[in-house]
Design goal:
heterodimer, A: 175 residues, mainly alpha, 6 helices, 0% strand, B: 517 residues, alpha/beta, 7-stranded mixed β-sheet, 19% strand, globular
């Protein structure tokens, strides 16, 4: 389906106003736990609850097709979000996106624009994480990807053919 | 007093340090950047997280000025750290062609080097062994007196299936691309096992970095590397002799170091900048070694014409971190004076990554997954890397407005592509497009850009002190104990990557320096 904020919020079980719809959050069990203390240095890290929400959002963007994939997505996104926020300058991006998606937002016109940007930024960040790591590359049929040794001659062989999906829209990406 | 002080610890500085130390000279290398272990798994974790592993703190990045029409990314093109830009280079190591050194005499354009290919050839052989270059035969490649250090990396799937046949249909030939990436275990380095992240960081240690020779130099017991020591000035003892350099260490303290000779090996931007910053009285009023007025001038990049295409079939991509083939047919000096030389190489880092396809798709859910599956893995690219002519108006000067954290003017880069360069890029696009058509591409699109990472010619060597900054050993005209090393001393740009030639020149210089200091 085409990306839209409304559909995304619905997929993660929130109304457009940020009210919980009660949909399943099976990929983020931790979100049902009391919020944990920040992991190392105060506000500098995402909390366990925040990480769980991030996983939930990732699963809405990239719905797992198997139980194994669900587990891998969970592990991967936790690693990705934790790494990017502790080793990189991305903590605020996550905080802003999470803040909007969990309803901590105002309703005036200026804020709506900022909210959209915050969600877009978080969506982009999560897609980067999914498709730069094992879960995304495996979904394309690859057994190795940048950052993982593929063997000394794998690149000389026919690549994975992927799975052609009939009917998926083909956007003009490269013009 | 030590024998040799070297400013900069990249491939040029570290090779000279090693050779001088091996000859028994005492050496201190001053490096403005930090020291990293290129095999540190914590650093590699950053690569997996799509974070840059080297000198990532923004405050450490360099301010600079550049005319807005040029897409120069100075901080993306160089690394300030022990080992220098070889930490994140792609490790392409083609030699240059013999006529590249005799452009004025043979073709009446550009200028001549003060040494010939034949003089440099034995040093190319040594450089290939020091760097562990893997390569094989390629039609039209420069003449050589010895085999490569290592056998070539086999051709990629796309080279075998698409490009070798398509180049053949176009009347062109591909051969093995020489790479300083170990195709077998070599000199303590592991064999390449396909991490594919050569730039910015090799996962296995197969790629050569300047750290190889930094460590070898240190192992002699005669060389010391001082990281995070930023040299601000070169100070004269007399009008013909340097006495010491002044530097700021990691604690912010100002120090000086005296030596019998000095080598400035800080890259194509910082070499001229340091000479300009070190202006002194008398004939050095416009900068050290600048009586010719050429310090900072004739800066050259390489041009890059890229032709991308979508193929009918899957070709993979991103399964190896470099191209495995190269075409020398348009680096034969046949089209002068209208069009410059270029080397053509199919890039195996092909097309957008899955993450980019996902980001730009505007999709989510099952539709997103299907779209990325359908879209990824069918793109290819050919790059035509071309030469630039030395133009005095292309230059590095000192900024009049912006200062660095030490209070010194940052580099101001003025660059303009001339008709020669534009024609060369255009021809590269025509050739690349023709090959893609012959390969059966379903969609073709192009881009042109000067490469940001190769900074050459800004303190050029030559025989005539009126028309060059240093002699064939990199020794500054009029300064008996000051040497320049690296791509800044190139007289021409060639069309080929600079690093092997930097290394060969450094070994040539090192023999002279070790014998004369």
């Amino acid at each position: 389906m085409p990306w839209s904020r409304r559909l995304f919020l619905k997929a993660i079980g929130l109304s457009a106003s940020g009210t919980a719809l009660g949909l399943s959050t099976s990929s983020c069990n931790d979100s049902r736990q009391p919020e944990r203390e920040p992991q190392t240095n105060g506000e500098a890290n995402l909390t366990g609850s925040e990480l769980a929400r991030v996983v939930m959002f990732a699963a809405a963007l990239f719905p797992p097709e198997t139980e194994n994939e669900r587990r891998e997505l969970d592990t991967t996104i936790r690693w990705w979000a934790h790494g990017r926020t502790t080793q990189g300058p991305h903590l605020q991006l996550y905080r802003d996106g999470l803040g909007v998606l969990t309803g901590r937002t105002t309703r005036d016109r200026d804020s709506a624009g900022k909210d959209d940007k915050a969600i877009d930024a978080l969506k982009t960040e999560l897609l980067e994480g999914i498709y730069s790591s094992s879960v995304g590359w495996k979904s394309l049929g690859y057994s190795a990807w940048p950052g993982v040794p593929s063997g000394s001659r794998e690149y000389t062989t026919r690549p994975p053919s992927g799975v052609r999906v009939v009917g998926a829209p083909m956007a003009e990406l490269f013009g | 007093m030590i024998d040799l002080c070297i400013v900069g610890s990249g491939v040029a500085g570290s090779l000279i340090a090693y050779e001088a130390a091996r000859a028994g000279k005492s050496v201190v290398m001053l490096e403005t950047g930090k020291r990293y272990n290129p095999l540190d798994p914590n650093l590699y974790e950053r690569v997996r997280l799509q974070l840059y592993p080297w000198q990532w703190e923004e405050k450490d990045r360099d301010a600079y000025e550049v005319n807005p029409t040029m897409r120069v990314r100075l901080n993306g093109g160089r690394v300030k750290a022990v080992g220098g830009t070889t930490l994140h280079w792609n490790a392409y190591t083609p030699r240059w062609q013999p006529p590249d050194f005799e452009m004025k005499r043979r073709f009446g354009i550009a200028r001549d080097w003060p040494l010939s290919y034949d003089e440099l050839e034995p040093y190319y052989v040594r450089a290939e062994r020091e760097l562990g270059v893997a390569g094989g035969n390629a039609p039209g490649m420069p003449p050589r007196s010895a085999p490569y250090a290592l056998p070539p990396h086999p051709y990629s799937y796309s080279d075998k299936e698409i490009f070798i046949p398509a180049f053949g249909k176009a009347g062109l030939t591909l051969g093995y691309n020489p790479m300083a990436v170990a195709s077998q275990p070599y000199d303590g380095r592991a064999q390449c096992v396909g991490y594919t992240t050569c730039a910015p960081m090799c996962g296995s240690g197969a790629k050569y970095t300047g750290m190889v020779h930094v460590r070898k130099a240190e192992a002699t017991g005669k060389a010391e590397v001082r990281s995070q020591c930023h040299v601000r000035r070169i100070k004269l003892a007399s009008s013909r002799k340097v006495g010491h350099v002044e530097y700021v260490d990691s604690r912010g303290a100002t120090n000086r170091i005296e030596a019998r000779a000095f080598v400035i090996a800080a890259g194509g931007i910082e070499n001229p900048r340091l000479l300009l910053l070190s202006a002194a009285d008398g004939r050095h009023a416009q900068g050290l070694a600048n009586e010719s007025g050429l310090v900072g001038r004739t800066l050259m990049f390489h041009t890059a014409a890229g032709v991308r295409a979508t193929m009918k079939q899957r070709v993979g991509g991103h399964r190896i971190g470099f191209g495995t083939s190269i075409c020398w047919d348009h680096h034969q000096h046949k089209n002068f004076p209208g069009i410059g030389n270029m080397i053509l190489f199919p890039a195996d880092l092909q097309g957008p990554m899955p993450a980019a396809i996902a980001r730009e798709s505007g999709l989510m859910g099952a539709a997103l997954r299907g779209h990325v599956r359908n879209s990824y893995g069918s793109n290819v690219k050919i790059i035509a890397e071309g030469e630039m002519l030395p133009n005095p108006d292309n230059r590095i000067a000192l900024s009049s407005a912006t200062k660095d954290r030490f209070g010194d003017p940052v580099p101001h880069i003025a660059m303009k592509m001339g008709d020669f360069e534009n024609r060369t890029m255009q021809r590269g696009i025509e050739i690349g497009r023709r090959i893609m058509e012959l390969a059966g591409a379903t969609k073709i699109w192009t881009d042109t850009n000067p490469l940001g990472g190769h900074y050459m010619g800004s303190t050029c060597m030559g025989s005539d002190p009126r028309q060059s900054v240093c002699d064939k050993y990199g020794r500054c005209h009029g300064l008996d104990n000051l040497y320049l090393a690296g791509s800044s001393i190139f007289a021409t740009s060639s069309a080929s990557h600079p690093t092997l030639t930097i290394a060969a020149l450094a070994l040539h210089q090192a023999d002279h320096i070790a014998g004369s200091v």
